Amino acid sequence: MTTVDLDGVYRAEYGRCVATLTRLLGDIGLAEEFVQDAFAVAVQKWEQKPPPNPGAWIVTTARNRAIDRLRRESTRQARHAQALLLHQPDEPQEVGPVRDDQLRMIFTCCHPALSPPARTALTLRLLGGLEVAEIARAYLVPEATVFQRIVRAKKKIRDAAIPYRIPGAAELPDRLASVLTVLYLIFNEGYASTSGELLRTDLCLEAVRLARELAALMPDEPEAIGLLALLLLTEARRPARVGPSGELVVLAEQDRSRWNRELIAEGHELVRRCLRRNQPGPYQLQAAINAVHTDGPATDWTQVLALYDQLLHHTPTPIVALNRAVAVAEVHGPGPALAAIEHLDLPGYHLLPATRADLLARLGRTTEARAAYDQAITLTTNTTERTHLQARRARLTPDP
Asked: What Pfam families has UniProt attached to this entry (predicted)?
């Protein structure tokens, strides 16, 4: 098995392996340590003969290394943990509302004792397998800040003896907001990865799978249904998001015949369920926006703008304001849209200068547009997005 294959297994299986071993060990820190050890062993072992089930191999190897370590320990706690590992059945019976190891891990990491930023940073690292740089981009904060959040979260879990256990049904709603955030960010990293190729399909599909589990677990929570609808409608467009040479294709230029109609139909039905509840939240509103984008041969931008007005009222963040400006440009023109984003402050976020560049180009202000594109290109870490921005800059008409 090549190094690239091993990297792919790491991305696809790391979260599952850590979640499974945490269930066996009852300790997140140890689980992560032994899974990393197992992947280090795989570097040598798999070169000659890769296993038929890489994820199961990693879990088994990590479990055996944990048993070896615990056998060398002399504490009563270590002997107890060893006994649990040795007598763990192949198919353990689970009790409680959360029956998926990874989803259960997300709820555990989203314990109320941890701060919201620490919860999501830790979960994205453990479950999404995201690197610190990728999490930092999602939060628009320095990498050092994310690193400290993860360290503090692990220390809090250890020092406070926060148990790895199945949350009771009454505990689930209090942790829902953090869980929704985690799944949303995992999907976003898959849909527009921090570096390398544009898409990480494994993260997109895993986020959709977990969102389905969550919606089934909490069918009366409108935002859980809204998140699932949002991910399905966005995932439906993924096949048309890149061209034949791997280039980025923006929404207006996508071949709609390549969209997944089955996912669109399912997403629309979920949006209608949310509308009947009349309890709008940010994920439901984003899902409704995506439902408009995927309804008919062209986007009704007036509807989109009306929904963004609601979303901005509900969630007044700079990123929502920036996305709303795109709809403003389609309805009222680039001038009002440019005025709407001039006051926004999003340090390090390449889509702000990229949007500004596009609006300036439409206004014929090419010198300013070039400068804005240069800023966006400098900030972009994804190769595909950078190439796309460079191409748009190159298409600008020369100055008079």
From this structure: DUF6596, Sigma70_r2, Sigma70_r4_2
